[in-house]
Specification:
By secondary structure, the protein is an alpha/beta fold. Helices cover about 50% and strands about 15% of the residues.
């Protein structure tokens, strides 16, 4: 049995509040949009948060996966295969959670928010969560930018690997200063 989540996300509710859906509706558009959402979560949440996050999607067809549970970037991604809609599974998780006061539920759906409040879980609307998530992802990119820039601008060695090996061996053989030979 998976660890109870601390962050429970109504996947499609969050996705359709975002600008991640894109314009096109060609083949695979929904799966690509889900991937973008999961990528944003992966960038904006800490590794500890990712390990306690469950994202629930409706699942008439869970994409290329016929499994109900998938682990993505440490998050548990659940397709509500055995439920008429994701809301039913979200409510079940909220109602059966062993520590509902530690649970943060992300959804703008009033049915889900009422259920969360009834169990004294924290309820966060999707727009507010997205704003926080996008700021965290931008901050993460800003913090990582100097390291990436340094790696990109690092000069390449003018010596080949064999030349470096040769000189290292020469320096190892060289007498140390202060030693009388």
């Amino acid at each position: 049995m998976p660890v109870p989540p601390k962050l429970l996300i109504d996947g499609y509710n969050l996705l359709f509040q975002s600008n991640l859906v894109g314009r096109g509706r060609g083949p695979g558009w929904l799966e690509r949009a889900r991937r973008r959402l999961l990528g944003l979560l992966g960038q904006g949440l800490s590794p500890a948060e990712l390990g306690t996050t469950q994202v629930i999607f409706d699942a008439s067809r869970p994409g290329n996966s016929d499994r109900e549970l998938v682990v993505e970037s440490g998050m548990l991604v659940t397709f509500a295969v055995e439920h008429p809609e994701a809301d039913d599974l979200l409510e079940q998780v909220i109602r059966t959670h062993p520590q509902p006061k530690s649970l943060r539920v992300v959804s703008s759906d009033q049915r889900i928010r009422r259920c969360a409040r009834a169990r004294r879980a924290e309820s966060i609307d999707s727009e507010s969560f997205l704003s926080t998530l996008e700021r965290a992802a931008e901050l993460s990119q800003t913090i990582d930018a100097p390291q990436k820039l340094a790696e990109e601008q690092a000069p390449e060695s003018p010596l080949s690997e064999s030349e470096i090996g040769y000189w290292l061996e020469e320096f190892r053989k060289a007498p140390k200063r202060g030693n009388a030979s």
